[in-house]
Predict the structure of N-carbamoyl-L-amino acid hydrolase.
Amino acid sequence: MPDVNPRFDGQRVLADLNALRAIGAFKTGVHKPTFSEPHLRSLDWLAARLPEAGLTAAIDGIGNVLGSSAKAGPKLLAGSHLESQNQAGWLDGPLGVIYALEAARVINTDPSIDGAVEVAAWCDEEGHFGQFLGSRSYVGAVTEAEIDAARDRSSDCTMRQALHDAGFAGRPRLHAAPGRHIGYLEAHIEQGDTLESGQLKIGVVTSIVGIWQYRITFTGAQNHAGTTRMAIRKDAGLALARFCVAIDDSFPAVCGPRTVWTTGRITLDPGAPSIIPGRAEMLFQIRDDNPAVIARLEEHLQRMAAELTARGGCSAAVERIRTGAPAMMHQPFQDAIEAASAARADGKSVRMPSGAGHDAQILATIMPAAMLFVPSIGGISHHWTENTDDVDIVTGADVYVETCRRLLAGAAAR
Amino acid sequence: MPDVNPRFDGQRVLADLNALRAIGAFKTGVHKPTFSEPHLRSLDWLAARLPEAGLTAAIDGIGNVLGSSAKAGPKLLAGSHLESQNQAGWLDGPLGVIYALEAARVINTDPSIDGAVEVAAWCDEEGHFGQFLGSRSYVGAVTEAEIDAARDRSSDCTMRQALHDAGFAGRPRLHAAPGRHIGYLEAHIEQGDTLESGQLKIGVVTSIVGIWQYRITFTGAQNHAGTTRMAIRKDAGLALARFCVAIDDSFPAVCGPRTVWTTGRITLDPGAPSIIPGRAEMLFQIRDDNPAVIARLEEHLQRMAAELTARGGCSAAVERIRTGAPAMMHQPFQDAIEAASAARADGKSVRMPSGAGHDAQILATIMPAAMLFVPSIGGISHHWTENTDDVDIVTGADVYVETCRRLLAGAAAR
């Protein structure tokens, strides 16, 4: 095995990423919501690049870009997404797509390698219209009715209208051909500081954590903020604040080593400065890769709510509104990433779960799937300041291409 | 002095209040926002009644209804408002207007009484378009520019458009004629449970509390709710929740005996379930009739915010956005209400501050002003279930008319 793959070109990877950054630029990041003009232009840009890697490009009826190879031998599916969160970073999505493109360029044009990398850009991983609609469509988990009902969470535009405006209406949706791929590989920035703080270069993802989401509702008595004495109030907003603090105080003793929990939204009803809130609601999320931990925490939440209600005053109700089972990454693929890191990144890798959701968790439902992470500076993500050192981007690409090579070689040898 | 005033008619008072309830009825209350069709119909209804009390009716350029008397002798200004909060109660406003109408009917048509009661319905006391725009216009405190800028807080319709649609555009705004009135009297439901719980019939208002309002802003670091470890988070929403709880725990030791405080609205930014809030904001209000108490509490708030910021993590900033000085009610008028309560309500009265704002605080800036309260069942207000027992409504009206008679008699005797 050569120390350097002469066909791998780190500068080409950086140039491609910067080309995508220039489409829909926002400060040092991008603003590229699903089906926005810059997003559509990015899809076209990718489709135009794919032939360089010997791939036939198609954009399907849900906006997935797929490149297929006629080369003989095993096929590895590889990719990520091109749209962004609003006013967000330049690497979340494009990094994994360009790594896949580079791997396809290196491998598919090399007659000495048996097999090919097929590139995918899954539409709407960022959830402007739903949850993983592109990759879920590919694995056959999206009905026409779900698309009928989908709306842009910012503009309220229907997905049907957006697909029509993009020129995708009426196109067939492409689905995975059973047995075609040996598996799926996705690269992503870490979106956390584990790699950076440990001076590591590659995260070998072991699992993608499940997300459990709850609506916790507090009911008190709406009344006048000037005339209602403090002693007789049933302030639902205050009950909510106390509940938030109690969660934060008590969860550490009940949670697992990597559990995270977040109150992302609070609504007081009616939300007027002169009215004591009669009702309050919080959206609360727990992530862990161990369902037993989640079960324990959910039971704890329910007990807290029951105790609050039993004390009189306000009542609390905990309603689970989203359940996401964790996805385990394929063990032999993890080994391949680790081996490639040993060869190309001085072994500076660590096995770690992903706290964020990714298309890989969807692909994992129908084929072996794996992910590798590169460091993200300051752990920032979903913000335009998100960034990764160019050197780390190139190292990650090198490890990624080497991983693809090893996975195809292993499959071809069987 | 007769035990019963033969001209006073409690059943007429109840009939009038029910006639107004039937205009814009919502469940057992009303939905009568400022300049809505039912509100405008209510203004017309009142204007049509005023001649029965010997008054010439006018509706001016800001929607105030004013009845003026040509009768000789001292004049007492009396009234309240006719619009309601959204989906709110039937008595908040109309009670004071109908008491004033009844007093005018009894007194103005009685040649044995020197002087007259002039009736007013102040527009928009409920603040759909601003703060006390009708009564503030009457005392000369509203500029044309303020009207230009005013918008309905629910529909965003401009006040100019609403005035035009109501047919009031271009009419002059009527202002107080200096020296015309000996003072102003307003009746209202208590909007609290002091009278009911003490089995009292009349509240003699000593002062209308001031309202101080604050925007308290927390700044942390926005980040991904899945990938950011708990230990390194700067969650602005959690900082806000802890601040709310700290206020509630520490204020009782610093506040006055009747201070009330309320967090009416909480906003987390960006408010998404999967993003740690980087910024959070609460609207916080304090009411008290003692500015020294407010000053102490404001200092306490600022110290809490400074301490939070000094601890690192999130920072907090307290910004005062509204200052309302308390209004003291005229002492001799309070004495007159108390004497009338002794004569007509078995002395079942108590002196008490008003925790809510009322037009009387605006009139108090240019003339002696006073208020009397009647009991409200369960202390409920700003809700359609708001109510007062018919017997208490009639008793209150009797005391009100008697108070007007005594105030005019006192003025005529000087």
Summary: The mean pLDDT of chain B is 95. The domain at 210-323 of chain B is CATH 3.30.70.360 (Alpha-Beta Plaits). Chain B touches chain A through 57 residues (CB under 8 Å).
